[in-house]
C-alpha cells in the first residue's frame, strides 16, 4: 500500500503524478513498510524546520519555502530494526511524517520516524491497530492537532505538537453512536452554523467497518466543541442505546424469556412454534452484543437451520416511527422473490393492508443496533410485524429486541451517507472554514475486492461541500456536490414540467453516451400517488434497472439496486451487495421536494435539496441498459419538473 498523487485546480479535472510514498521492500522481497491513510498540511510558519532557501527578495533577504508535510501511518508487516535504531515489531502501526519543498512532487521521509511509535501505555496491546492520523493547525492554541484512531477500541486519541515531530497526548474521544466495528479515517474540523461566522461548531467525521448503516463500511458524524485539547460531543448528537425517546411506547421488549411467542400474543410458524424469547447470554453465537435487559427474539435456535415466521399481534399505527434493535445476517426482503422458491430473506417487516411497506435485515454482525422506520403515512391504519427466516445458509438468523413506537426516530448514529458505498471520507486542509471539502471512497469493504471493474478497482465520490444547517431546530451536517462540477455539465438534454404526472411510466429520451452519465434534477409535490422517481440504466425488458425516488408514505428517499446489474461477483453468502436503501426525509403533503441524482456509468449519488441526506451506490449494468423512465406509483404526482444534463468526461 502506497500513497498515490493527483492534483487539480478545480476538484474536477485531475492530473496524475508519480507515486508520492511508495511501499518499501528489502533485498529479499520482504515488505518493510506500507503507507496507510493520513493527511497533509502546509507548514507556513516552518515550525518543523523543513523549509529550504528558494531565493532572495529585492532587499537581499532569503526567501524560504513553505514545506508540505504528510502525516501517515507506517504499517510494518515485517519485524526489523530501522537505520535510526528504532526496533519495529511485526504488524506494528506507527505515525510518521514526510516533507516536500516542491509542492508535493517529491518527498523525503523524516529521519526520526516514527514520530509516534506506539499508542499510550493503557492501550499498549493496540500497537497493531493504531492508525489514520488527521492533522491540522489550531490557530487559537498555536499548535498542531492530531487525531489518531485506536480502531478496535473505537477511540480517537487527540495529540498536540509545536513542530509536527514531537507529540503530546491531550485527551481521547469515544465510544459513541456507531460503535461495533473499527473506527477509521477520522477527521475533525470547524464549520459555521447556518453560515454565521459567530456561531462555530466542530465536527468529527469517521468511518466504521464493519457496522455501517447497510452492511460492511459506513461513515458517521458527531457535532460538538473543541477547545484545543478536548472534543466534547453535543448531547443532542449522541445516541444512548439504552434510552428510548420521550413519550415512546414499548410494544415488545422480549424480557419474558419463560413465555412462548403465542403466550405473548405473537404467532409462530415452522420451527418457531412453541418457542419464545431467549436470554441473550445463552444464544450460542459468537459475541452477541447491544441488547437491552436480558431477553431477545432470535431465530438462531437450532443453529441456522431453523425456518419459519414469527408474527406480532395486529395494532393501530399511532405514532410516526417504529424503532427496534436488530442484528444478524444480511438477507434482505426482495419483493420480486418473496414467497417464491428463490426467497432467501431473513428480515423483520411491517405489513399494512396486506403489503410489506418496510423491511429490515441484519448488517452481518451479532451486535444489535437501532434502526427506525418512518410510518407517519400509515397513522390510523392497522398493521403487524413479521419476522421471516426462510434461509438455512451461513449467518442466516436474526436477533430483535425492544420494539418501540415514538414520534421521533431512535437512531444508532448520524450517518453521513445512507448508501452502501461511501467510506474513508477525507477532508482538505488549507481552505476557509466555510469551504470544507470532502471526498469519499466509493466502495464497501464487504465486497470491495471483488467488484467487476477493469482496469481499476474503486472510484472516489464527487467532491462535496460540507456545512452545518439548522433543520427542524436541530443542527445537522449537510452536503452538496461542489459547484465546480458544473464544468462537466452539457446543455440541458431534457426538460419538462407536468402539472400532474399520471400513474405509470413516462419514457425519457437521453442521447448516448449521456444516458449512462448524467445529472438529473427532480422537483415534485405529492399527489394521489405513493411513490415517485426515476429509473436509470434500464433494459428493454425491465429485468435490469436502478430505481431512485421518494416514498410519500414512508417519507424517505430510496435507491433500489436489486436489479441494477451484475451481482454475481459475490460468490459467498450472505451476498452483501443487493438491496433497497432508504434515507428518512420527513415532509408535509404540500412540500415541494427536490432530488439531485448524479449517474456516472457504474454509480449513483443522490442528494436532497437541502443536502441533509445522501445515498451513494455502485451499480454494474450491462452497456445496453441505458433507458430512462419517470414513474408515479399508486396514483399521480403533482408539479413535476425534470431537468437532465449530460456529464462530460473529466479526463
TrEMBL record:
Source organism: Lipomyces orientalis
Lineage top rank: taxon: Eukaryota
The protein, known as: Glycosyl hydrolase
Record keywords, A-Z: Hydrolase
Protein's UniProt keywords contain Hydrolase: yes
Amino acid at each position: 500500500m502506497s500513497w498515490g498523487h493527483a492534483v487539480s485546480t478545480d476538484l474536477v479535472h485531475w492530473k496524475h503524478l508519480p507515486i508520492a510514498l511508495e511501499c518499501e521492500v528489502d533485498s529479499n522481497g520482504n515488505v518493510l513498510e506500507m503507507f496507510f491513510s493520513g493527511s497533509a498540511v502546509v507548514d507556513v510558519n516552518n515550525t518543523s524546520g523543513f523549509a529550504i532557501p528558494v531565493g532572495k527578495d529585492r532587499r537581499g533577504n532569503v526567501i524560504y519555502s513553505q514545506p508540505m508535510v504528510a502525516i501517515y501511518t507506517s504499517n510494518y508487516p515485517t519485524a526489523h530494526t530501522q537505520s535510526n535504531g528504532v526496533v519495529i515489531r511485526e504488524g506494528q502501526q506507527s505515525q510518521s511524517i514526510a516533507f516536500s519543498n516542491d509542492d508535493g512532487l517529491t518527498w523525503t521521509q523524516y529521519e526520526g520516524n516514527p514520530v509516534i511509535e506506539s499508542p499510550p501505555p493503557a492501550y499498549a496491546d493496540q500497537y497493531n491497530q493504531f492508525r489514520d492520523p488527521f492533522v491540522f493547525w489550531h490557530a487559537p492554541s498555536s499548535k498542531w492537532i492530531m487525531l489518531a484512531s485506536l480502531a478496535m477500541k473505537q477511540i480517537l486519541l487527540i495529540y498536540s505538537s509545536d513542530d509536527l515531530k514531537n507529540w503530546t497526548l491531550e485527551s481521547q474521544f469515544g465510544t459513541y453512536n456507531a460503535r461495533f466495528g473499527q473506527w477509521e479515517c477520522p477527521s475533525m474540523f470547524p464549520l459555521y452554523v447556518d453560515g454565521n461566522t459567530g456561531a462555530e461548531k466542530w465536527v468529527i467525521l469517521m468511518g466504521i467497518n464493519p457496522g455501517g448503516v447497510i452492511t460492511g463500511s459506513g461513515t458517521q458524524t458527531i457535532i460538538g466543541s473543541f477547545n484545543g485539547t478536548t472534543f466534547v460531543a453535543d448531547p443532542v448528537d449522541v445516541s444512548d442505546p439504552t434510552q428510548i425517546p420521550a413519550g415512546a411506547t414499548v410494544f415488545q421488549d422480549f424480557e419474558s424469556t419463560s413465555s412462548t411467542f403465542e403466550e405473548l400474543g405473537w404467532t409462530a410458524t415452522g420451527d418457531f412454534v412453541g418457542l419464545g424469547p431467549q436470554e441473550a447470554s445463552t444464544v450460542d453465537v459468537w459475541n452477541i452484543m447491544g441488547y437491552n435487559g436480558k431477553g431477545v427474539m432470535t431465530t438462531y435456535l437450532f443453529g441456522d437451520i431453523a425456518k419459519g415466521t414469527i408474527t406480532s399481534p395486529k395494532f393501530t399505527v399511532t405514532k410516526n416511527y417504529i424503532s427496534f434493535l436488530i442484528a444478524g445476517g444480511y438477507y434482505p426482503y426482495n419483493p420480486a422473490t418473496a414467497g417464491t422458491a428463490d426467497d432467501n430473506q431473513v428480515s423483520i417487516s411491517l405489513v399494512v393492508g396486506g403489503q410489506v411497506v418496510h423491511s429490515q435485515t441484519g448488517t452481518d454482525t451479532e451486535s444489535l443496533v437501532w434502526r427506525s422506520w418512518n410510518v407517519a403515512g400509515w397513522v390510523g391504519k392497522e398493521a403487524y410485524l413479521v419476522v421471516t427466516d426462510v434461509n438455512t445458509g451461513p449467518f442466516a438468523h436474526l436477533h430483535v429486541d425492544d420494539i418501540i413506537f415514538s414520534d421521533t426516530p431512535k437512531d444508532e448514529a448520524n450517518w453521513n451517507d445512507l448508501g452502501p458505498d461511501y467510506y474513508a471520507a477525507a477532508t482538505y486542509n488549507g481552505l476557509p472554514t466555510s469551504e470544507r471539502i470532502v471526498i469519499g471512497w466509493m466502495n464497501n469493504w464487504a465486497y470491495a475486492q471483488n467488484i467487476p471493474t477493469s482496469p481499476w478497482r474503486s472510484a472516489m465520490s464527487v467532491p462535496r461541500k460540507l456545512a452545518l444547517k439548522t433543520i427542524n431546530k436541530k443542527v445537522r451536517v449537510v452536503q452538496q456536490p461542489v459547484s465546480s462540477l458544473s464544468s462537466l455539465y452539457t446543455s440541458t438534454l431534457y426538460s419538462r414540467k407536468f402539472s400532474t404526472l399520471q400513474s405509470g411510466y413516462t419514457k425519457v429520451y437521453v442521447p448516448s453516451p449521456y444516458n449512462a452519465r448524467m445529472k438529473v434534477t427532480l422537483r415534485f409535490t405529492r399527489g394521489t400517488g405513493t411513490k415517485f422517481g426515476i429509473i436509470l440504466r434500464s433494459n428493454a425488458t425491465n429485468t435490469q434497472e436502478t430505481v431512485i425516488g421518494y416514498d410519500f408514505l414512508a417519507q424517505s428517499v430510496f435507491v433500489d439496486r436489486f436489479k441494477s446489474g451484475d451481482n454475481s461477483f459475490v460468490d459467498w453468502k450472505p451476498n452483501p451487495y443487493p438491496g433497497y436503501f432508504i434515507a428518512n426525509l420527513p415532509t408535509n403533503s404540500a412540500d415541494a421536494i427536490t432530488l439531485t441524482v448524479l449517474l456516472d456509468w457504474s454509480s449513483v449519488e443522490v442528494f436532497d435539496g437541502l443536502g441533509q441526506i445522501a445515498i451513494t451506490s455502485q451499480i454494474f449494468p450491462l452497456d445496453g441498459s441505458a433507458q430512462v423512465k419517470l414513474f408515479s406509483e399508486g396514483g399521480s404526482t403533482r408539479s413535476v419538473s425534470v431537468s437532465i444534463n449530460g456529464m462530460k468526461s473529466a479526463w
